[in-house]
Design goal:
Strand order of the largest sheet: 3-2-4-1-5-6
Structural class: alpha/beta
Radius of gyration: 16 Å
Largest sheet: 6 strands, mixed
Distance between the termini: 37 Å
CATH class: Alpha Beta
Order of helices and strands: EHHHEHEHHHEHEE
CATH architecture: 3-Layer(aba) Sandwich
Shape: globular
Number of domains: 1
CATH superfamily: Phosphoglycerate mutase-like
CATH topology: Rossmann fold
Number of helices: 8
Helix content: 25-40%
Strand content: 15-25%
């Protein structure tokens, strides 16, 4: 296990057309908008002076482009477990469209038909956390909103359903760390300075 001084820097990818419209974007590989690219570039000064023992990035293009624009591209290694939640039949739909057919639906509690269940997400994220904790030093992750919300919940020992409490905007920086030896959230949903 990594020392309790380890920090995990989580960079959510920049804005896409579907993040603007609120559509679930799991496997659909949309590019960043021009604004998304601009904000991703502004992440670079926040990360430039930091030495990461490892940089992991989702296989999806919007995350890989964000890593590149934020200055992490040369170190970045594609990590399949950072892939966004697979929404199955709900891919491309907004929560409002889904709830019109399935009242009370919540991705973190109910998952998605033809996609991933909360239990499958827990398994994938727990596997990632175990590997990250073995890294001797700080780690940067570049990925997506729902997988990061699950990661934050699981990092501090909460169930996947607790991810609903961690709102996360595009192109933000969050940091996981420790309070003594206890996993903790250090920074959450920090916007990029203009």
């Amino acid at each position: 296990m990594a020392s309790s001084g380890q920090k995990i820097y989580m960079v959510r990818h920049g804005e896409t057309e579907w993040s603007l419209s609120g559509q679930h974007t799991g496997v659909t590989d949309l590019p960043l908008t021009e604004r998304g690219r601009d904000v991703a570039r502004r992440l670079e000064p926040l990360l430039a002076d930091h030495r990461f023992a490892r940089v992991l990035v989702s296989p999806l293009g919007r995350a890989r482009e964000t890593a590149e624009l934020a200055g992490l591209g040369e170190q970045a290694v594609v990590e399949p477990d950072l892939h966004e939640w697979r929404y199955g039949e709900y891919e491309g739909l907004t929560p409002q469209q889904i709830r019109a057919k399935r009242p009370g639906w919540q991705i973190f509690a109910d998952g998605a038909p033809g996609g991933e269940s909360p239990a499958e997400m827990a398994t994938r994220v727990d596997r990632l956390i175990a590997r990250v904790r073995e890294v001797p030093g700080d780690v940067a992750l570049v990925a997506h909103g729902h997988v990061f919300r699950v990661l934050a919940a699981r990092w501090i020992g909460l169930p996947v359903a607790a991810g609903q409490h961690f709102l996360l905007d595009t192109a933000t920086l969050s940091v996981l760390g420790y309070y003594g030896d206890v996993p903790a959230l250090q920074t959450w949903n920090a916007p990029v300075p203009r």
